[in-house]
């Protein structure tokens, strides 16, 4: 019969050795528990902490089949690695500052109202996960750049990412669900997935939004349609908003920033791109004062060129957005009243997804005085 070694730590413990192994760890209320950044501590049993001075800068490896991590006070770790199959149940607040590794096993966060599990990752390296190792619950991350969330619900792996986070002080949490959500569909969305959605929550600061990528495999929507990312408010039958999308590998990535709490996958209707053929910048009615292209926000990549009657470029825009776009307006300040009255040609070159061929739309435009 295998004997299980049990450690009750009281006093002050500062580990400087490179590797150390424990079966179970209980840290007393008055214990200082810390280490150098190079220390690796492996355990196949429970970790129970009652100390307010738990500040382990090394890495803890969870090698057991089913383990419990619980703390009554917030805990800071340099690294945490899931290295054994089975569930690792987490209670209390845990912050990982350097490395969070998913190799085997699920990290299941307790939903208890008093000491529910909360994990925050603040490292600079982008996380990775797999279908056998991910977070079951809300994973928080803090920092700028790409935030990949290896998350899922139950036995279903449902990762996603936020691809250009600019709000470095915000703690952005994402939780995955293997069920659909009730939304009102606008004309440019024909269907949304009924077997998955994601919820974003934020603490510490404001999250202004970021393009998002959602996990496609196993989605209930028709993969032959144009898959897009959809976001919405967290309310029954809220209106879904089409953020556009292009599929690359296992993910569909939005063209526009997601800044609402509900995300899911949808099928976008065919995009009707139209260049309005009249500009009237000289009168005082504030109508048609600038170039406008209907649905240009759904293009992945575009170049717009305005040519005069002799074919000479007057103005070129890279990734053009309409000047009256309510979410991402063009702010280059171009003064269309500088144009002489007459006829011009507008050429729109674009892609609808990263992998789609380039397309072109040409439209004669009249500038009236």
Brief sketch in words of this structure:
This protein has 369 residues and is mainly beta.
Based on the model shown, name its key terms:
single chain, 369 residues, five-stranded antiparallel beta sheet, 22-stranded mixed beta sheet, Immunoglobulin-like, disordered N terminus, mainly beta, 36 strands
What this model shows, in words?
By secondary structure, this protein is an all-beta fold. Among the domains are: 1-125, no CATH class; 274-367, Immunoglobulin-like (Sandwich). Helix content is 0%, strand content 51%. The strands form 5 sheets. The chain has a 22-stranded mixed beta sheet that branches. Strands 15-18-23-28-27 form a 5-stranded antiparallel beta sheet, with no helix packed on it. A 5-stranded mixed beta sheet has the order 31-36-35-33-34, with no helix packed on it. Strand 16 (151-153) and strand 17 (156-157) form a beta hairpin. It is elongated and about 80 Å long.
Whole-number average pLDDT? 89
Counting H and I runs of at least 4 residues, what is the number of helices?
0
Distance between the termini: 94 Å
Quaternary state reads: single chain
Q: Could you give a short account of the major beta sheet?
A: 22 strands, mixed
> What does the radius of gyration come to?
26 Å
Helix content: under 10%
Low-confidence stretches: 1-17
User: What is the molecular shape?
Assistant: elongated
Which band does the percent of strand residues land in?
over 45%
